[in-house]
Amino acid sequence: MKAILYSQRNEGPVPRRPTGLCAVSVAEHRCGPAHPPRSRRGKERRNSSGEWQEEGVRGRWPPKAAPAAMPSSALWAVDLFGRVFTLSTAGQHWEPCRDAQLEFKRVSAARDCCWGIACDHQVYVLVGASDVPIRCQEEAYENQRWNPVGGFCETLLPSDRWPWSDVSGLQHRPLDGVALPSLHWEWESDWYVDENFGGEPTEKGGWTYAIDFPAAYTRDKKWNSCVRRRRWIRYRRYKSQDAWAKIPSEDDPQQLPDPFSDLSVGGWEVTDEPVGRLSVWAVTLQGKVWYRENVSHHNPEGSSWSLVDTPGEAVQISCGPHDLLWVTLWEGQALVREGINRNNPKGSSWSTVEPPTSENGILHVSTGVCVVWAVTKDRKVWFRRGVNSHNPCGTSWIEMFGEMMMVNVGLNDQVWGIGCVDRALYFRQGVTQSELSGKTWKVIVAGREGDRSLSGSSFSLHSAGCFFGNEVRGSAESCGPGDTDASWEVPGPASSPAGLRGKESWKGPSHATANFPEATDLSSLRLLPLGLEEPDSADCHALWAWVSGGGCAVEAHTTLKWFTTQSGLCPSVQTLSLSITPAQTAAWRKQIFQQLTERTKRELENFQHYEQAVEQVRNARGTSSSRHPSVWVKTGALQWWCDWKPHKWMDVHVALEQLTGHDGAQDSILFIYYVVHEEKKYIHVFLNEVTALVPVFSEAKHSFALYTPERTRQRWPVRLAAATEQDMSDWLTLLNLSCCESRRMHGRPSPQAIWSVTCKGDIFVSEPSPDLEGPERRLPCDQMFWRQIGGHLRVVEANSRGVVWGIGYDHTAWVYTGGYGGGCFQGLASSTSNVFTQWDVKFVHIYENQRWNPVTGYTSRGLPTDRYMWSDATGLQECTKASTKPPSLQWTWVSDWFVDFSVPGGTDPEGWQYASDFPASYHKYKTMKDFVRRRCWARKCKLVTTGPWLEVTSVALRDVSIIPESPGAHGSGLNIALWAISDKGDVLCRLGVSELNPEGFCWMHVGTDQPFTSVSIGTCYQVWAVARDGSAFYRSSVSPSRPNGDCWYHIPPPPKQRLKQVSVGHTSVFALDENGNLWYRQGVTPSHPQGDSWEHVSNNVRHVSVGPLDQVWVIADKVQGSHSLSRGTVCRRTGVQSLEPKGQGWDYGIGGGWDHLSIRASATRAPRSSSQKPASKQNGQPPSVAGGPWQTPGPVCC
Amino acid sequence: MHYPIGLLFDLLASSSALPWNITVHFKSFPEKDLLHCPSKDVIEAHFMSCVKEADALKHKSQVINEMQKKDHKQLWMGLQNDRFDQFWAINRKLMEYPAEENGFRYIPFRIYQTTTERPFIQKLFRPVSTDGQLHTLGDLLKEVCPSAVAPEDGEKKNQVMIHGIEPMLETPLQWLSEHLSYPDNFLHISIIPQPTD
């Protein structure tokens, strides 16, 4: 009944305020007046209505090249003429900064913003454009007291707080007195009342009641409620993104008397509270050092300058990403700031470092995480040895090769310099964690695309002069480096013909030659480069004045295209050389492919009827005289986990026999030969029965697990280990190929595939068979075949039009490219294109535990019964800093151990949490009763792999949901709705997602009053989301024409539970709470899409995915197998029918160790075409076969 | 000197009608012209020495020396059994180069001409010029075998063949070396007279 109602695709208006539903309390959260109609949105950027504003197609920042296999971060530089350029790590050309009106002296970049000093000596900040706006909530409380005459009114007692106040009641805060902090902010909407009170909706008006101020407030009015208050909120939004915003100079001229001369941004690794906190330091012409207070993501301009006293006159300053801050003094020494930490980011004292030689003082310093580079007055470059957090001064200077104007240390301690003689930009090559000083300087020869596209009119004469000087200089050679006057003279009509002729001869024939004689005036000369067929950037050598790498992430595996001017260059990495590069479109390449195709036709196709002269018998066992079926064997030595006594890894000899039948079908058997009690035995596995091959990277062993239906039921796979990583990937590749071969599975997974991720981040897909969701004779879950796809993800979501998105552990979003293989798969098991480098970052946590004793206070000496003094979170495992290794051999450490202050419950300034005893609940303040304390240490580790994934840049995600296609709805050409939650909890909706462009093109921000954690969209555009306070929200009126919907309806969670995930299918809505309970939303109808109540379905559920057929799949914990208990098992809800959407029981599939699953692409019920045959063929096998081969311990000699 | 069979075809028989008829001689081996390979092991050794020579040019032998005996065996077994994936799993490592470089150190190539007595031309040639420009096939020929390339205005007299095709002279040499090398990791280039028809 419900299904029928829904299939009419209710896109009509949903009643905004459902009435008469006592069971549901629905609160409407609106962010301002109703939205303008779609046609108006382009012009509505500055009106107060909010969300449409984000819809405009904005350029990316930093500019992103065509599909790139690396994240694009950018290097910032200023040329001699004050123009600011950025060079993307994925790009090959300098892009001029958007706001080209300003000329700059200095820039200092961070990841998301860039600070600079312009030629007017004012400080500017450029915040990168983002699809997610910077918005801040302002709040004010309206307070009222009851009096017998007029009821609640604004007249308070004289001792009371203000009628309008802040949360504490101490500050007077009338609504119209709340002002925007600067010109760069705008209000998003007008003030409105917050009706959500701690996850629960309040009565109309949002009032909360109490006996008196200040007291505990409740949402119910009682007989003794004498006072009440309500919260008004209003959002302001930073409007100057992607533009240089002037930092207002101080009002008081005494405060800041002289102009700024240098500036440096850093310190983002000191603490992440508040989000995006930065240290901004500046030096004035008088040599004073200033610190900008309160700069963070939500306050990009900071609040005020404060003076930091220095013992000498400062000329230049450099702040590293972490706690290093060096200043150069007029006299040539360096000052080093000591005592910078998360509680005191300004540091406490200075110490002095003498220059390397007394006659040549330090001119310039630059600091990284644990390096300092310096340039002395004689332009020599120096590297400071032994610098780190504990010893910010380092130990000694080492002279480096080369002479530089300046050097700059960027992310990962990479170094850039500006050459002293040629003013060219150099990159220090070979800087690694183990070799921080790098190997050589390599000149960056990237061209300036902007030179051609910028029109002369927007430039000052000086800029135009530079333009010509650079263009002609390469051949005319009359422009001395750094000599602007000379370059200004070059483009005179007299000298340019010679220069141009020189260029012509270099370039070969060009059409421009003929036109040249007429081109005598400046304007036509200026256009000349446009006419050249391939403007060469090598001779357009820019002269640089300043460089900043603080926003530029270059890592060991990054391939940069900055060093060649050739456009047809393939990057070196094998996988990359197959990606889409200009080389692929080059004429020579097309011609080679065409010729090869013709050659094959000419030389092979006509002769296919010739018999093979040499029979292909590979390592044939014995003398294989029969020609068919051919057999070949791969043998090797592996280790095998012996399931029975002595329960240990045993050295075994394994052989994989592949038989190719007459029809070309392949069948394979894996034999494992082992010796027990000097008796030779073996077990064997038919590869067509294998359901999954799962790599298990443990700390020490390269092992993998092999599942069959029987083994899945036992929760006890066959485990094999190889000696080396290469060996393991060889075997995994081969076994996977054989499995796929025997099931006739090739190429990319079908669009209907079921995607899943294990707790190790490995990605598995399964092809749904038609009877997977069939009404009768279903395929048992444990017979599903899972094959691995390269890459590393935490979340994967798919839809039946082939759009697949993933999210890594570091919240990076990835989009599936349509390839397969990658990772440890090589050769034929991997697609030749569409496989790119992928990476992931996560943190390993250990705990330091201490006990108090009356003599010495807290020490690391515990009681004999205590946990280890260095342990894991449970305290059961000892984990010391030295002995804790990365999670597996794939991961490497990329940071040192640091104290993690972001643990739930908060910590004291040193990171400690206190409790009366282990294990207990910890709190952040020490009380008399606390005898133990602990603190959490974290260390960052990184994995680099390959897979068919491309990064979706700009916003990091926490959750994503793609609209499932209801059965029968055929693509209709509409864009595919995709909703996501950013890592900061913003709700986002992706525009422009389609089969052809699965990445989409930009995010639209959907306003909320609190951070969200989970989102899901159903087949009929029902969007449900879960907020951080554990309550659910329903978004009304989402449709193809209105992709971001209208407003949120607050839906309280089940009693005493906090929801953490929601999944919406065709009509069903399921949610999961933090205690692992699965809930079904009862009473959802098209006219009442919010439903009535939550009904409990099951416990021990970790993740739920509801498909387009309302099928319910979960990842469950505590699944009892015949041999062991498993955590993280794929389960399907059985008995789900339209009249019984909650289903009856569970069917258990692959696991444990599974973490995430998406069934949302699996929309076909009817038998599908040929590609499904192998799976159904496999279904036909009697299930009893699976049990057979395993327990055959017969004595067989090999 | 033994040439790969594909090269022999390009060099001597590319204009002949297919299938190519080969006469197999079982006696009177031309001992003074060709080295006699007495066993399969000698052929394997010859193959491996070619691969090693190529890697000496490409990576100063660093890659091949870091491989294990097993890997060397896999290269040979892959070739012998016509199993490309087996061969390529190892050979791809020989085709990689450090990220900070733009190509191999030198390109392993040999140029064969039917018109000269010289068996082949082999010189040191870098894939990237000093100014960062990628060298092309044309650059190579101009440098080491100028007679093979036609002058700007002149008539094309020769064909430059690799694997039975004529790549454009603008093709980057590094790409050719990575993608069109023979199993011995050399780029075998034949210069044959342009057919007159």
Structural commentary:
The complex is a heterodimer of chains A (1198) and B (197). In chain A, the strands form 16 sheets. In chain A, strands 8, 9, 10, 11, 12, 15 and 16 form a 7-stranded antiparallel sheet that branches. In chain A, strands 26-27-28-29-30-31-32 form a 7-stranded antiparallel sheet, with no helix packed on it. A 7-stranded antiparallel sheet of chain A has the order 38-37-36-35-41-40-39. In chain A, 10% of the residues lie in helices and 34% in strands. Chain A is mainly beta and 1198 residues long. Chain B is mainly alpha-helical and 197 residues long. In chain B, helix 4 packs across helix 5. The longest helix of chain B is centred in the first third of the chain and has 20 residues. Chain B is globular and about 55 Å long. The model of chain B has no long low-confidence stretch (mean pLDDT 85).
Task: Summarize the topology.
The complex is a heterodimer of chains A (1198) and B (197).
Chain A: H1 2-7, E1 27-29, E2 74-79, E3 84-88, E4 93-96, E5 104-109, E6 113-118, E7 123-127, E8 135-147, E9 151-153, E10 164-165, E11 185-187, E12 192-193, E13 196-197, E14 200-201, E15 208-210, E16 227-238, E17 244-246, E18 260-266, E19 278-284, E20 289-295, E21 305-308, E22 314-319, E23 325-329, E24 334-338, E25 349-353, E26 362-367, E27 372-376, E28 380-385, E29 396-409, E30 415-419, E31 425-429, E32 440-443, E33 447-448, H2 450-453, H3 461-476, H4 484-489, H5 496-507, H6 512-515, H7 522-531, E34 544-548, H8 574-577, H9 582-585, H10 587-603, E35 630-641, E36 649-660, E37 666-676, E38 679-686, E39 692-697, E40 702-707, H11 709-714, E41 718-722, H12 725-742, E42 754-758, E43 763-766, E44 786-789, E45 795-798, E46 804-807, E47 813-816, E48 836-853, E49 857-859, E50 870-871, E51 891-893, E52 898-899, E53 912-915, E54 932-947, E55 949-952, E56 957-962, E57 978-982, E58 987-991, E59 1002-1006, E60 1012-1017, E61 1023-1027, E62 1032-1035, E63 1048-1051, E64 1059-1064, E65 1069-1073, E66 1078-1082, E67 1093-1098, E68 1101-1106, ...
Parallel strand pairs in A: 4-33
Antiparallel strand pairs in A: 1-63, 2-3, 2-34, 3-4, 5-6, 6-7, 7-17, 8-9, 8-10, 8-16, 11-16, 12-16, 13-14, 15-16, 18-19, 19-20, 20-21, 22-23, 23-24, 24-25, 26-27, 27-28, 28-29, 29-30, 30-31, 31-32, 35-36, 35-41, 36-37, 37-38, 39-40, 40-41, 42-43, 42-74, 43-44, 45-46, 46-47, 47-55, 48-49, 48-50, ...
Helix pairs in contact in A: 3-5
Chain B: H1 5-13, H2 40-59, H3 62-66, H4 69-80, H5 84-94, E1 109-113, H6 137-144, E2 158-161, H7 173-179, E3 187-193
Parallel strand pairs in B: 1-3
Antiparallel strand pairs in B: 2-3
Helix pairs in contact in B: 4-5
